[in-house]
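[job 0412] stage=fold_complex status=start
inputs:
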Amino acid sequence: MQRVGVFVCWCGSNIAGTVDVQAVSEALKNEPGVVFSANYQYMCSQAGQEMIKTAVKEHHLTGIVVCSCSPRMHEATFRKTAVAAGLNPYMVEIANIREQCSWVHKDVTAGTEKAIILGKAAIAKVNLNTPLTPGESPVTKRALVIGGGIAGIQTALDIADAGFPVDVVEKQPTIGGKMAQLDKTFPTLDCAACILTPKMVDVAQNDKIRIFSYSEVTDVRGFVGNFDVTIKKKARFVKEDVCTGCGACVEKCPMKKIPNEFNLGMDNRHAIYIPFAQAVPKVATIDPDACNMLKNGKCGICSKVCAAGAIDYKQKDEIIEETYGAIVVATGFNPISMEKFDEYAYSQSKDVITSLEFERLTNAAGPTAGMLVRPSDGKHPHTLVFVQCVGSRCESCAEKGKEYCSKICCMYTAKHAMLTRDKYPDTEVYVFYVDVRTPGKNFDEFYRRAVEEYGVKYVKGMVGKIVPEGDKLKVQASDLIANKQLHLDADLVVLAAAIEPDHSARPLATMLTASMDTNDFFTEAHPKLRPVESPTAGVFLSGTCQGPKDIPETVSQAGAAASKVIGLLVKDKLTGNPCVAIANELTCNGCSSCERVCPYGAISYLDKEFRMPDRTTKIRRVASVNPAVCQGCGACTVACPSGAMDLNGFMNNQIMAEVDAICK
Amino acid sequence: MKHNNDLREEILRMSGVDTAKCMKCGKCSATCPAYDEMEYHPHQFVGMVEIGEIEPLLSSESLYKCLSCFACVDRCPRGVAPAKVVEAVRLTAIRRQGANHMTANDVPLILETDTPPQLLVSAFRKYTK
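[job 0412] stage=fold_complex status=done
writing structure:
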């Protein structure tokens, strides 16, 4: 029998306001095993913890029950207290009488009754607790960053700075991500390439960083400290270490009508291509769907003109297997498709474009060398209409838009409008907005400058429909403040399309067993206090894969994720969680039910020799749990038909004792 | 302005619309083909019902200018369905004793030779009790 001490916390008035704490500690005094029961204002305070330590010594306690807040809050605190008092930390049980009791009840009688029942359940459990000792596992001192945009770049640089090797996996032929496509950046209007490309070069030249471009993560196994990752390096049909990036092959390639992804299809590229001048690695890539040599075996011009002899039409996908201690997800975003927004005529007119297309159109390295012209006829536009919130905050049309605010559109639209008026003072620029959301350092000032100094016409109201007519776009919109319906003849319409997580994010989340929200943004371990960690140990989040954010925020988060990774990699050993599954070999019938439900691949089977009652031996197939991989989710204990699977710290008999105590 | 909460609840119930979801973007009124004919526009119907300012709507011609084309319902990003609000206010007006928008006697005066009979039937259904 245990000698149990019960400690009831008031949590100021949080618990004591709805629960009669004195009555609870009195009632629990007579429970089996209880030799001490008390209550105190703040159990988690220094004085409260001292009270526990003293009671352990004076009453020779072997188990502790703390009736307080959620175990997520202070279980770790009280386990440390137990250790300081000379007990095993797993001899502590928490009865949650705050979140699950006092906060949800208004009536003191009902709240007190429930608190007593919850306390009884915890006492019943602690009576069956056994001391547990966590195992240790080594840490592989190498990090993997998935995604080579500004988020991934910054995270990789910061981790490498601390001296740890980092691999960056990027699915495109070059790193740089969306930021490489931008023209200027708000609110300072410095050129995106000018501040990004030096960082890209830093990544390439850092001897701690390896870049796997044109590559994808295809499999992740293992656990924090030891992730076994498979990376597929797609064949680019060019030897990366031989190619000098001179571009002779690109010039001579006869297949030159391939829509250029980097310019969002607004101009063409060749079948062999380098995405842009400052690409890293600056290596050509052959598009296998467009190359005549790869499709029909005819051509081979690039191979003939390549002085370095880098072309290799026989190149195969390469599979790389590597072990990492930590993984950072930095998979970024894309603008949503505008095809379904028929009212804005995106599919009908070339002169209705998205904001990202506008970036390319005003970029000196873009399809028009920075000249703002109409994509349809190359003419200079005089009246421009910007429409905000296209597909953002769109609750009713889930198949078209997104219910969240995309956060960056207000600022980039102000930037586009301002730059247009600055460069082309003969233009009339309208911005139709629902709300203008510009919190952030120097952000609102920036938006006001567009209005006050550059004469951008901000109209409160949405655009209802756009109809192409002749070479004009008939825009019908609301001006809610003037209470008018506006009819404008526009030359160019720019839609601020909502952004969504990259489509590679969901399959990746499945591989990592990292949780996501309904919008496919990765979920953080705590929205305020652990914003760059995934709930899955060893997986960290950087940039827009976690939620919409601009460049300054992305860079801060990237640095934060890196510091968390460094904090993990400096450790030589990780202390595991002893609350893992265990298989009872005597009752296991080797049916594989547990193996099938285990999300971590922690269960394998052994053929083991058993002595039978008649002194013969028999070989039986039995389950065996790898405690380093098991995360203690308990799925196997539920799936096991013979009750052979059990979970340390949450044994079946402990759970049943709790249920009995509650139902008594 | 006198606010009528009972009437507001009744209109919300009849229309099945949650006017609180409106984010005041004005896309309904930007879409409306009958905008110029209306004294109160679709977004105003939603906003005025939300604050219980319904009497001005009940006595407004706007009720009968709405074409029920449902373009606003289709385009509303928040799923508010302004046309259903207009419809509920119109029904409320019609249900008030003697508040028919037109009588049978008025009809021949506005009739054109090529008016389809089906239009007459639906107009009677829509404007009278």
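[job 0412] summary: Chain A has a mean pLDDT of 95.
[job 0412] exit 0
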